[in-house]
């Protein structure tokens, strides 16, 4: 049986994040990827120049088309910028009895440009948190969902993870990429406890699409039948290698993408 995952997210015209990063990640990890596009962005490595939201009814139509034909084993959810789209996606997930739902609550692009309207935060919190199997907020996103200051240490991260569980989330991966220190630490918080995932922080400005890549890599692992903790561990290792290889690419004049195909593309000077 072919492992299939679907990404429900916005399109990045520059190719480094969003739908494009998700599909690259699925492919790199041996999973067939389908897509439901929620928004179009005019975007490059320098920032987001424009956003066009897809009509919610058409978002739902895309979901119906995918799930009525494909045997989807995991779902990754990314950019949902308006309340009406959030509601349409939540309804579609329930109707199609979707499983292994990984929700990355995208709010701000790596460039600092907003991707979620302020009035949509409460709808996100109340509608999608309870039906996702895993949510993957970074430090600012977790703070926004909880209306709290940004966590400054692992103890605060764990407390915010517990608070998100109390809001209905089934499992939470608090990502520490926005933190400081030699290590980038993520905490997987579930009803059974906290699991720590650490990696050396890599000095590069080419980190566009890291959040999208991590969440879609987790979804790919779940689609292949991995348990949650193993899927998270393998996804973080994959992202670390993609970040480490990012500087071998030369893409744009700003924050370039990670190298999704670092294990497949030959480096300059290698034999073909």
Structure description:
There is one protein chain. The chain has 272 residues and is an alpha/beta fold. It has one domain: UDP-N-acetylmuramoyl-L-alanine:D-glutamate ligase (3-Layer(aba) Sandwich), CATH 3.40.1190. It is built from 8 helices and 9 strands. The strands form 2 sheets. It has a 6-stranded mixed beta sheet. Strands 7-8-9 form a 3-stranded antiparallel beta sheet. Strand 1, helix 1 and strand 2 form a beta-alpha-beta unit. The protein is globular, with a radius of gyration of 17 Å.
Q: CA-to-CA gap between the ends?
A: 32 Å
Mean residue pLDDT: 93
How many runs of DSSP E, i.e. beta strands?
A: 9
Query: Structural class of the secondary structure composition?
Result: alpha/beta
Count of individual domains: 1
Low-confidence stretches: none
CATH superfamily: Ribokinase
- What is the CATH level 1 assignment? Alpha Beta
Largest sheet: 6 strands, mixed
Number of helices: 8
Order of helices and strands: EHEEHEHEHEHHEEEHH
**CATH architecture name:** 3-Layer(aba) Sandwich
- Whole-number radius of gyration? 17 Å
Helicity, as a percent range: 25-40%
| Beta-strand percent range | 15-25%
Label the overall shape: globular
């Amino acid at each position: 049986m072919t492992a299939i995952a679907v990404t429900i997210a916005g399109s990045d015209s520059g190719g480094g994040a969003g739908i494009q990063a998700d599909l690259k990640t699925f492919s790199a990890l041996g999973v067939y990827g389908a897509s439901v596009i929620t928004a179009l962005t005019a975007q490059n490595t320098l920032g987001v120049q424009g956003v066009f939201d897809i009509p919610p009814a058409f978002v739902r139509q895309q979901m119906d088309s995918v799930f009525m034909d494909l045997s989807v084993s995991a779902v990754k959810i990314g950019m949902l910028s308006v309340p009406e789209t959030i509601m349409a996606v939540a309804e579609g997930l329930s109707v199609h009895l979707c499983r292994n739902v990984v929700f990355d609550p995208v709010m701000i692009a790596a460039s600092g440009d907003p991707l979620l309207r302020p009035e949509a935060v409460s709808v996100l919190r109340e509608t999608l948190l309870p039906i996702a199997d895993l949510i993957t907020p970074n430090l600012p996103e977790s703070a926004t969902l909880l209306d709290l200051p940004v966590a400054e240490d692992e103890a605060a991260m764990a407390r915010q993870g517990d608070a998100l569980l109390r809001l209905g989330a089934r499992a939470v991966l608090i990502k520490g990429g926005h933190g400081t220190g030699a290590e980038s630490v993520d905490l997987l918080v579930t009803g059974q406890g906290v699991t720590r995932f650490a990696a050396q922080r890599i000095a590069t400005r080419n980190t566009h699409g890291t959040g999208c890549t991590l969440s879609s890599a987790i979804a790919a692992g779940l689609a292949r039948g991995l348990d949650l903790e193993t899927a998270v561990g393998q996804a973080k290792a994959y992202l670390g290698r993609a970040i480490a290889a990012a500087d071998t690419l030369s893409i744009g004049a700003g924050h370039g993408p990670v190298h999704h195909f670092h294990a497949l593309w030959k480096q300059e000077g290698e034999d073909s």
